[in-house]
Structures are given as structure tokens and as C-alpha cells.
Amino acid sequence: MAGRTRAATPVRIRFYRVIMCVGVCTSRNEPYKRRVEGVAWNSRDDRVFRTAGADSWGDRDGMTPAEHDAPFIALHAISKHFGGVRALAGVDLAIRPGEVHGVIGENGSGKSTLIKIMSGSTEPDPGGRIEFDGQPVAGLTAHAAVRRGVQVIYQDLSLFPNLSVAENIGFSEHLRRPITGLTHRARLRAVARQAMQRVGVALPLEAPVGTLSIANRQLVAICRALAAEARLVIMDEPTASLTRHEVEALLRIVADLRARAIATLFVSHRLDEVTAIADRVTILRDGRRIDTVAAAGLSEARLAFLMTGLRTDSAPLPRRVATAQTPRLQVQGLSRAGGFADVSFSVAPGEIVGLTGRLGAGRTELALCLFGIDTPDAGRIVLDGETIALASNRDAVARGIAYVPEDRLALGLVLDHAIADNITLAILGRLVSHFGLIDLARQRASVAHWIAALRIKAPAPADAVATLSGGNQQRVVLAKWLATRPRLLILDSPTVGVDIAAKQGIYQIVEDLAAQGVGIILISDEIPEVLHHSHRVLLLRAGRIVAEYDAATASAIEIQDALDA
Amino acid sequence: MHSAWRRAARSHEAVLGGAVLLVGIALSLATRNFLSWHNLFNLIDSYAATGIFAAGLLVVLIAGGIDISFTATAAVSQYLTASVLVAYGGNWFTVFAVSAALGAAIGALTGVLVHTLRVSAIIVTIATLNMLYGALIFATNGAYIYDLPDWFTDGGSIWQIADTADSSYSISVQALALAAALLATALLLRRTSVGRQIHALGGNAEAARRLGLNILRLHLLVYGYMGLLAGIAGVIEAQLAHSVAPAALVGTELDVLAVVLLGGASLAGGIGSVGGTVLGLALLAELQNGLVLLGISSYWSRLLVGSVIIVSSGAAALGRRARAAPARPAGAPHG
Fold first, then answer.
1. Which residues in chain A are contacts of B204 at CB distance < 8 A?
2. Same-domain check for residues A246 and A377
3. Residue A205 domain-assigned (yes or no)
């Protein structure tokens, strides 16, 4: 790891070039371990750093800041209590210039609190110490953190939708000027253009950020961090709302930051990304720092173990006993203009069918048709031997079809409402007593049943769903749909934004449901997920099913290759 | 305000401008007096206070806040200033300076309350409206001040432009104050750093906090500026009326809000322009004045103004929705 050293103080590399080729190489055992060939050179001294042909991002000799580099920021014994609840307990963390430092931990492990403390928006308990370049800083404020070069890219991106791309990126120009000073539009635009060049993107400078796609908004947030002369960019779950292609672009940008001696704190649920990009990884559990380890050679299983304290090697799905039953669902020649064409497949009772494909391949459009939200142009949907025409999603629910959307926050849950009300939202009609009122006793019984069955960790059923962790929120969505006693359950990316331990719990629920005879369609763009948790995998491309795999014999590489073809 | 949003705002302003023109042409044809210098200068004088209030309120709305206490602020600073004027004398400069300073102080206090209580600004300003107005009526018993100095009541006209048979018209102190307030507000919002910070605060308050913007300072400035303009509006209203009546201004705050919303500002914050506000003011003035000239009860003008707000804001919202169709909106399913 030691390799070549760089100057201890951050140098502004004026002439640089980084070429990064990120390929995706998968195998059954090590899903999504990326292979990279990277060359970076610095024309000032013609020194060439090379990491070509390495097996993973783990081997990045010469690009890692030397061990003796003085850290840019160092936290010593940082603790934080909110009321009586301990969020962080004596955490030490040091980040060197140019280092990519991963932070992983389950929900509630203290990741967000750590970010808030480093960005000066929350004050730690007395007793700890924060140092910048070796100098202790007391009472760090948001303003002081920004001035010292800490930039946070929040999950919600924290942009101004009403302002232009240029103004969002160059906003710190406003803060630098005296409060009565006039704005300098030309400089603002120049700063924005320069930041976009450094990231290698070209967005319209005058477009209001509110009209951009999520991925482009994220690019704006990254450009803003660069324009503010960041020395440390903290990325909070940056990939949660991105497609795989966009994630790869983001990882390239992080590698580029490293080449400019800008440190990155990469906070993520997704272990594959952390191991792919980070130099070192800090693992948090219950507010404590479990360990800080070099990412090179670190396996995901090891990380998952450190993070949860549990072994999470998933056992292969038990093979389904084939029985000659009528299929639960049969889809014949289903088409919808602009979505998908001539799709035919079947789902047997107790079968989990995985459905994967790229963004725009028609996965969600197909699901919406099966759930009665959209109507197909052609083809037949046969449920338990009966051809059905769904007029609406109410119709679909009445027939025993349930759909858990990908964006549970926008489409699946009423966050401010009680857990109990959310769980029974889809079955209120069944809980009505003679007088047209909700039978509260039956509602309570139903809620208690589902909280127990899905092991939802909630203080009280009357608490708002917003108070739960991501994994538990997802269980509430599942409970809501399972309460309708579905015969066919469509799950769209059920584990997005859910940490690894909670993921296992959700897979277990899905497998138990299948064992009870529910037919399940599992939609995901993570190939290992559909491969490990389905019986069969269907591959959608440009709206058509182009391949079908037996999950027991297929490999992730094979499917990935077919996807890329 | 850029590109698509600017286009939306522009088109809103274009539609509004078209409406102002149409109503103006119709009234010019239908009535003898509408299109006369006398009437136009009169309109400017009588709507100047509303316009100055509207400029201040625009800044508050863009910052994501709201203030409805400004009429009470104006009434209090107007009354105190007039009392000082009667007791000690003064000149134009001291009158404006005292009233503006009093208004700014009251406004800044509102800003402190909004910032520290973290209660929604409408609740805070409903409370301060009632407190200020109640205290004013209690302290004055509703008594008018008539004995203003002659230079104040007579000297409203700065430049006499011409004198026809029986009517003279002139650039008045009202018109000058209105122009100054509009120009200063446009400069503040569009060209100063703090004006852009005000836009940012209204666009995403949490993001503004995280970026290290000084939110207290912005609140002080926004509500203080509203108060300052309210103080100035109080002076020119007293000059126009040649007297100070404690109850004259309170009750007109919703007209001002109507003007600003008509001009394309959003209650959600972050959006609005001085140009739009001017057009909103023009439309309101035309409608109210036109109905009077046509001999229709002024109650109809309220109904008309209300309908115009519904139609214009509805059209603006529809237009914005149609235009702002991002490639992948937040929260939309994809796959």
C-alpha cells in the first residue's frame, strides 16, 4: 500500500488527467467486485501512477496517500447524546488528504450524526476534539466547516430548485462577498463552468435546478462542492437514487477527486460500492467505531459481519417442488406502446420469478399493467386460470394482486401517519362494522398480527412511520400489502435503501410467503439479488423478454453479459 | 429565476401585461376620463402606498415568509412621526428618516420573533398586527392628527408639469417614493449577494442553513426592509390625506397580498419579481378605478379582483406544471 508518496500538504495539481475505465466483473461468489484499470499522471513532474490490470479497486498502489500523511480532519473521542439516546460513543476518525474513506453501518449506527458533527450542524458532547490540519477547532459551526473546506452532499442534495445551475454551483461566491455587495454574474458563471469542466459534465447554466433529473441534480451538488474549494467531500448515501450506470459515473468522479488530493467520505449501505472505491473503511455499530480497515482485499462478507455482528452468507433458495398446478399468473403476448411488447411468462403458486433489466427496459411499466394502473394495448392476463381485465388498481387489489412500489416514500407510505393506520390502509373496507365505522378492535388485532409476523421493530403502533428506520419502513409497506392477503405479490426493488441485516429479513419474509403459495414477481436491477432470491430470472431488454434463466444454474456474469449485449 | 422558470415568469408577466393593456384600452374607450393625465397621475398617487407595501411584501414572500402586520407597522410609525413633526417640526428628510427607522425597528422585531419562536410567520404577524393596532387605538383613542405643517401638506408636488384649464398634474412625492422603492427592491433582489441569499432561503431553507447562511441576519433584513418600506408608505399616505388617521391603513393588507400574488410571487417562497408586482399593481388600480368611472359599485371590484387572482394563479400554475416536466421527477417510478 505504501507505494509512492505525495506531499504531506495538499498541493493544487494544476495539470492533471485521469483516465478511469470502470468495468463490471461479477462472479457468483463475489458479486459486483469491480475491476479497474486506472492511469493518472501529473505532467508537472511526469510521474506516472499506474494501477493497470489490478484485480479490483483494492489494489491502487501509488494512488493512496502515504500512511504518514497528516490527516486533514481528525476526530478524537467524539460522543453525542440526543436526550437520553446515545448516537455516538467515543468515535475516533482521521481522514487524510485525497483519501477515499468509506463509512458503513446499519441504520441507527450513527452515520448521520457523524456527518452532522463533521459539517458543524450538530455540536458533539463535551470531551471530544475535532482537529483540522492538526489544529484543534472548538465549537465548529456550519459556516466554519464550509470555510475549512468541508462540503456535504446530502441524500436530499440540498439544492435550491428555484435558482439556476450556475447559481447553485457558484453559491459560495455570494457568501464570500460582503452582505451589501453586488453579485458578479460573469464570475458566477465562470466558476460554475470551471467546476463542471472538472467533473466533465455540461449542464445548461441557466436551467433551474428544479427541472433537472435526479442524476443531474447530484452532478450539480458535486460541482457545488468542488466550486467551494472542498478539501473533504462527504457523500451521504450518494447512490441510493441512481441507476447502475450513474453510479459508475459517480465512482469515476470520486477517483478523480482522489487524484486532486480532495478527500472523500463515502457513506453507503452498499458494501460493493464501498469496497470498490474506498482506500480505508470505518465500520460503525450502535454508535461505536468497530474498526477502521484497509479496503484492499476486504470481502463483502467480512464487512457485513463487522457491520452487523452476524454472518450473512445467504443460503441458496430451497428448490421449489414442481407440481402440476394451474399457474397463479399467466401473461400472454402483453404489449403496451412505449413500455413493452409481446411479453409472455407465467408464475406458479409458490414461485418467485425475478425480473431484471436496465432502466427503461419496461420493468415498472409491466408491473403497473399487472396492477391495473395502466391498461395494456394487447395480450391477456390470466390469474388462476381466469382471464381478467383490470379496470383499476382497486380492481387488482380486490382480485388479490399486490404491488410494492420502488419508491415507498412517495408511493407506498403516509409517513406522518401512524404505523397502524399505514398497515390497515389497504384493507379499511374489510374492517368496517355495521354502522360504517372502522372496527377498532379488529384493526388493532390485524396490526398486532402483522407487527409480530414481520417483526417490525416499532415502539408503538401509534407512532408515525417516519420515526422508523428504512428497513422497518419497508416492512410496514409489506405488511400493508400482505394484509390484503394477496395471491400475487409484485415487489419492485424491495431492498433499495435498506441495510444488509434488514435485507435478509425481507428476503426471508418473501421466501416464507412463497412457501405459503403466493406467486411473487421480484423486480430489481441488482442481478445478484434476483439471482439469489428467485427460482427463475427473466431478462427484459427494450420492452421484451430476451432471456430466461434457471436461478440454480445461471451465473451473474452470464446475465450481466446478456444485459450488456 | 432563470431559463424555464424565468420563461414561466416572463410568460406570466407577458399575460399580465396583456391584461393590463386590454383593460386599459377597454376603459379608455368606455369612459371619458380614464385615459387622461389627470386620472393617471391620480392613480399613481393613490396606489403608491399599496405599491410600496407590495415591494416589501414581495421580498418577504421570496424569502419564504409572509407578513400581514405591515399596515399596523405603517400606522404606528406614521402616527409617531406625525406627533414628532407636530411637536418639534422637521423637514422632508427627517420625516422620512424617522418613519422609516421606526418601521424598520418594528419590522426587525417581527423578524426576531419569526426567527426565534420558529412559529409560522403568518401566526406571528397576525399577532403583531393586532398588538400594534390595538396599542395604537388604545393610546390615541382613534384621534386624528390634522395640524400637520403647511410645507408638508402643500409640498406634495415636486415638479409641476403643466397646467391646463383647471387641473394641474405633477410628479408627486408619492410617485417618487414608489419609484425609489421599486428600484431599490429590484436592485436588492436581483443584483446583491444578500438578495440572492434571500432567493436561496425561500427556495430551500434547510439547504440554506446547511450552507452556512446567516438565517437570523436574513430574517432581520427581510422583515426590517418590509418595515422600512411600511414606514415610508405611512408618510406618503399621510401627505396624500393631509391628516393621520390611526385606522386608515389597517385592513388593506390583503389588497397588497393580492397585488403581489397577482404579480406571480408564490406563497411557497423563492419566486416572484418586481416587474410582475408592478403589473399586478397596475391591474388592481385599473380595475378599481375603472369600475368607479363606470359608475359600478366598488364592491364589484373586490369580486372582480378575486376572480382575476384565481384565474391568473391557476393559469400560472398550469403553465408551470406543463413546462417543468423533468426527465425523471423525484419520486417517480422508473425501471
1. 158-161
2. no
3. no
Q: Are residues A245 and A393 in the same domain?
A: no
What residues have CB less than 8 Å from B148, skipping those under 6 apart? B82, B85, B86, B238, B242, B243, B244
Asked if B209 is an interface residue toward chain A (Cβ–Cβ < 8 A), one would say: yes
Q: Does B194 sit within 8 Å of A160, measured CB to CB?
A: no
Residue B212, domain CATH? 1.10.3470
Indicate whether this complex's ipTM tops 0.90. no
Instruction: For residue B2, give the nearest of A146, A152, A164 by CB distance.
Output: A164
At residue A118, the pLDDT reads 93
Domains of chain B: total: 1
3-state secondary structure of A510: helix
| B118 in A contact zone (CB under 8 Å) | no
Out of A279, A308, A337, a domain closes at: A308
Q: Which of A160, A216, A407 sits opposite B200 (nearest CB)?
A: A160
Residues 6+ apart with CB under 8 A from B252: B50, B53, B71
Does A3 map to a domain? no
A215 CA: distance to closest CA in chain B (Å): 9
* Cell reading at B234: 405611512
Mean pLDDT in order along chain B per 10 residues (335 residues) = 53 84 93 87 93 97 96 97 94 95 97 92 95 95 92 76 63 93 96 93 91 91 97 95 92 91 89 94 91 84 81 71 45 37
The Cα of A211 is separated from the nearest Cα of chain B by a number of Å equal to 5
Asked if residue A319 is part of any domain, the answer here is: no
Judge: A207–B192 Cβ closer than 8 Å, yes or no.
no
CB-CB under 8 Å, A145 with B211 = no
pTM for the whole thing?
A: 0.70
CB distance from B207 to chain A under 8 Å? yes
Mutate: best of B5, B222, B225, partner A, most A CBs <10 A = B5
To 10 degrees, the CA torsion angle through A362, A364, A370, A371?
Answer: -160
Q: Is residue B218 part of a domain?
A: yes
Same domain, A141 and A239: yes
* Full residue range of the structural domain in which residue B303 is found: 26-316
Determine the residue of chain B that is closest to A163 in CA distance.
B1
- Tracing cell 452532522 back to the chain, one arrives at A116
For residue A59, pLDDT over 60 is answered with no
pLDDT score recorded for residue A471: 72
Per the structure, the complete domain to which residue A285 belongs is given by 18-149+230-308
Sign of the alpha-carbon torsion through A444, A445, A446, A452: positive
Alpha-carbon Rg for chain A in angstroms: 25
| Nearest-Cα residue of chain B relative to residue A225 | B211
- Give the C-alpha separation, B305 to A526, whole Å: 56
Whether residues A353 and A280 share a domain: the answer is no
